[in-house]
Amino acid sequence: MLTTGVMPTTEIISTAESSSSIPHSSPSQAKTALRRELKRRRRALSPREQRAATAQLCRRLRTLPELLRARRVSLYLPMGGEIDPQPLLHWLYRRGVSVYLPVLRPFSANSLWFVAYRPGTPMVKNRFGIPEPAAAFSARRQNRLPAWALDALIVPLVGFDANANRMGMGGGFYDRTLAFMRYRRPAPALIGVAHACQQVAHLPVEPWDIPLTAIATDAATVRPQKR
Ligand SMILES: Nc1nc2c(c(=O)[nH]1)N(C=O)[C@@H](CNc1ccc(C(=O)N[C@@H](CCC(=O)O)C(=O)O)cc1)CN2
Ligand SMILES: Nc1ncnc2c1ncn2[C@@H]1O[C@H](COP(=O)(O)OP(=O)(O)OP(=O)(O)O)[C@@H](O)[C@H]1O
C-alpha cells in the first residue's frame, strides 16, 4: 500500500529504466521524494516501537532457513531509525557463526567490504557517522571477506514492495558490491530487513538492482514471486 501521498505509484513506476546498461543519471524526483518520506517514517518510530520491532524481527530471522544454515553472515549497525538486527548477534555467536559488517571500501567508490565483527574489533565512525571496523583492522586480509564468500547478508532497506523489490539509501553500495551475483554461483542469500511501515505498493526495478532472496520485517516475511 502506498500511503505516503508523496507521488502517484504510476509516476514512480514510469521512472524504471528498461535499458540493460547502467546509466549514471541522477535519481528521479519521485524516487528521491519517496526515499525521503520512508526515512522520515522510520525515524518517527518511538524508542518503544523500535524495541518491539527489533524483537519481532529477530524472532522471525531466527526461523529463516537461509540463516539457519549460514556459517558466515553480515549484518549492519543501525542509523536513522533503521530496524536493529543486533539482538541476532548473540544467537549467531553462540552457534559459532562468523559475523561481518559492511565497511566503505577505500579507493573503490560506493562499494563495500565485509569485515569480521567480534568482541574486541576496533571501531571508528565512517563518513556517514556509522561505526565500522577501523581501517588498519579492515586492511588485513584475514579480517575481511568479499561478498561472494558470505553465506547470507542482512541488508538494510529504506523501502520495499510485496514482490521483494528494494530501495536503499541511494548510494548504490549494495548493488555495486553484489553486481557479481548476475553471473557467479553459488551466491549468498540476501535477506532485506525493514520496518513493516516501509512497505509501498510498487517500487521501480532498475537495471542494476540485484534481487533479494527474502525480506523480513517486524510483521511479515516477503518472498519474490517466481520470475
Ligand atoms: N546502517 C547502515 N549501514 C550501512 C548502509 C546502510 O544503509 N545502513 N549502507 C547501505 O548502503 C552502506 C552505507 N551507505 C550509506 C549511503 C548513504 C548514506 C546517507 O546518505 N546518509 C545521509 C544521512 C542519513 C539519512 O538521510 O537518513 C548523510 O550522510 O547525509 C548513508 C549510508 C554501508 N553501511
Ligand atoms: N553495478 C553498478 N555499477 C555502477 N553503478 C551502479 C551499480 N549499481 C548501482 N549503481 C548506481 O548507484 C546509484 C544508486 O542506485 P539506487 O538508487 O538503486 O540505490 P539503492 O539501491 O537505493 O542503494 P543501495 O544499493 O546503496 O542500497 C545509481 O545512480 C546507479 O547508477
From TrEMBL:
Quote the Pfam families the UniProt record gives.
5-FTHF_cyc-lig
- Residues that hold ATP according to the record: K31, T32, A33, L34, R35, R166, M167, G168, M169, G170, G171, G172, F173, Y174
Q: At the top level of its lineage, which domain of life is listed?
A: Bacteria
Q: Give a GO molecular function annotation for the protein.
A: 5-formyltetrahydrofolate cyclo-ligase activity
Where substrate binds, per the record, is at L77, E82
Chain spans, region Disordered: 1-31
Query: What's in the keyword line of the UniProt record?
Result: ATP-binding, Ligase, Magnesium, Metal-binding, Nucleotide-binding
Q: What is its EC number?
A: 6.3.3.2
Q: Which reaction does it catalyse?
A: (6S)-5-formyl-5,6,7,8-tetrahydrofolate + ATP = (6R)-5,10-methenyltetrahydrofolate + ADP + phosphate
Instruction: List the cofactors.
Output: Mg(2+)
Where are the compositionally biased (Low complexity) regions? 8-28
Single GO BP term: folic acid-containing compound biosynthetic process
- Per the database entry, which stretches of residues form a coiled coil? none
EC class name: ligase
What family is this?
Belongs to the 5-formyltetrahydrofolate cyclo-ligase family.
Q: List, alphabetically, the NCBIfam families matched.
A: MTHFS_bact
Q: What is this protein called?
A: 5-formyltetrahydrofolate cyclo-ligase
The beginning of the lineage is: Bacteria, Pseudomonadati, Pseudomonadota, Gammaproteobacteria, Oceanospirillales
